[in-house]
Design a protein that fits this description.
There is one protein chain. With 355 residues, the chain is of the alpha/beta class. The protein has eleven helices and twelve strands. The strands form three sheets. An eight-stranded mixed β-sheet has the order 1-2-4-3-7-8-11-12, with helices on both faces. It has a two-stranded antiparallel ribbon with strand order 5-6. A hairpin with a 3-residue loop joins β5 and β6. α7 packs across α8. The longest helix has 16 residues. The termini are far apart. About 6% of the residues have low confidence.
Length: 355
Amino acid sequence: MTQTKLIWMLLFTAFISNHSNVFAQEVKHGSVVTETLVSTILQENRIGLDPNRSIKIYLPPGYTGSRRSYPVVYYLHNIFWSPAQMFEDGNLVSFLERGFSNEVVKEFILVAADFSTPTTGSIYGNSQTSGRWMDFIIEELVPFIDSKFRTLPNRNSRALAGDFFGGYGALKLAMMHADIFSVSYALHPVATGSGPQPWGSIPVDWKKIHQAKSWADLPNGREQIFVSMAQAFLPNPNRPPFYCDFWVEFENNEPKPHPVNTRKAQVGFLLDETLDKYASNLRTMRGIAFDWGRFDPTKAHVLSNRAFSQKLEDLGIEHEAEEYNGNQYNRNWTENGRFYARVLPFLARNLVFED
């Protein structure tokens, strides 16, 4: 090698070393806008729901400078959470934009409506007590988004995603409304089945629930969640203060499982209870996936998801299911976690991105 060639090679190597960012894929930025949907459906409730629902909409980088229409992913958040919290640390937007730039997935619109409530948050049911949330999504939210933004307004270009209770909602909407959505990914969903423990034996202070005069009287945690579940699936407009019945009632001043209420709540809440009814809907889906962390301390969640996958298989419903080393939360929102490494590629494989 001549001395001139050696000098040029050294100079080029130094340039690459000092300017490597020039050759990196540029990350382009979209925008997050906030809209308010005044719901008529959610005005019917007994828990003090505000019918003015805030919605966060992420518009991808190409949206503003083009006339293109985009597929939409509806993200359903967990209880005790909100869209504002979803976006506040910037990770969600960062994962989306890195995914777009690295061609993990083509650009789409992401919609995160506010499913928070004065109690725990939506349990994704239809209840005259705690709100007709499923009707709200189908009859108000989806038409609102299609009317305000350049969407591809068909099921093949609409997807659902969510975590924990939001994952439950993503699967439930796929079961009930495959005519509206064709893709669904649930991150560690709950209530896919009842698990091995009878409901009446689950540790909960039923005495405090039945003695409570208001929501503030309930202990934080399981008692609040169980009351929210009862409001969603055992509504009773004539029974204050919570306007619901329970699957454990009091008899002779002692808590006793109520078989009729138990079965009514289970059929309304647990996904496997109505799987046969909606199997034909699920067979029309372009993509169904869910995952769960092996180390969730509530083992019923792990066992129920395993059993749910098996039932889907028995019913001839194509799906992706994965159990991973982690708990219900700690692997979803890391740099190369479940959302980036699993959800985005799944959307890329199954959503329709063009007319």
